[in-house]
Amino acid sequence: MNMMRTAMLLAVMTALFMGIGAMIGGTSGMMIAFVIAAGMNLFSYWNSDKMVLRMHHAVEVDQRSHPDYYNMVAQLARNAGLPMPRVYLIDNPQPNAFATGRNPQNAAVAATTGLMQQLTREEVAAVMAHELAHVQNRDTLTMTITATFAGAISMLGNFAMFFGGNRDNNNPFGFIGVLLAMIVAPFAAMIVQMAISRTREYSADRRGAEICGNPLWLATALQKIAGAAPRIENHDAERNPATAHMFIINPLNGQRADNLFSTHPNTENRIAALREMAASMRTTGSAGGGFTSSHQPSYNAPKEPTPPPPSGPWSARPKNDEPPKGPWS
């Protein structure tokens, strides 16, 4: 299903690309756009994940450089039955995370330093479990290719401002075509992004809660991230807005409503669904794979835990428990 969805997405993006080319340069512009789109299809499949990671200045880490973070992801990947993904850290104060890669065998997960500093260890684990759920659901290829194509379409629409007004370019739409290229095409690309972004988050929330073993960890994580993201600007995301749908919470300022123009579902709706899931797990006594915490059970809490103080993910421990090395060290 996901492969068919990706193929349809590529077809839609290619058609948009060709349509903009026709508006800017007529038949010749359409053919040039087709050649570019064909090249982008191949390039995006193999390299779009590297492009996105580079856009956000993500640095790969390993067990030696950031053992607790790396081992956390390794344990969660085992819980999910996934190959070990590449693990990245982004030096950014906004708490957030995303996953990328064309398949589970070539996947990567990335978290910001803000996520590490503002969430508890269990909440960080829940966020990374959510990202691994995207990998397991094979959402990452569609998400990453969409980011690449949507950014390119928006850029091509901007080029219309400079090249679309030439009377000698055989443009049958004239100035109206230029306006369509500049306004409608980027909007259409945004609509395609939203079409694949909204429903997949609920599915990843549910599977992520199963992987980490406690839906309430993810619920409190979403609450904290949603509260911090509008206040802390993510400069790389603002420069590359086409990648916003890849993050667990929209990293762009001022886009939190659950409506047609949102790249993510309403956070309160996601939290409510996770709390319902937690209540169901308490009733049935079921649990997911479970993330081993040094100071909290995988899942048997009779009520929602009190949110810990925002003093960093690895500090909320008993005094006799030596905290491991944090991933920001």
Automatic annotation (TrEMBL):
The keyword Lyase does not apply. InterPro entries: HtpX_protease, Pept_M48_protease_HtpX, Peptidase_M48. Its EC number is 3.4.24.-. Pfam families: Peptidase_M48. Its cofactor is Zn(2+). CDD domains: M48B_HtpX_like. It is an enzyme of class 3 (hydrolase). This is Protease HtpX homolog.
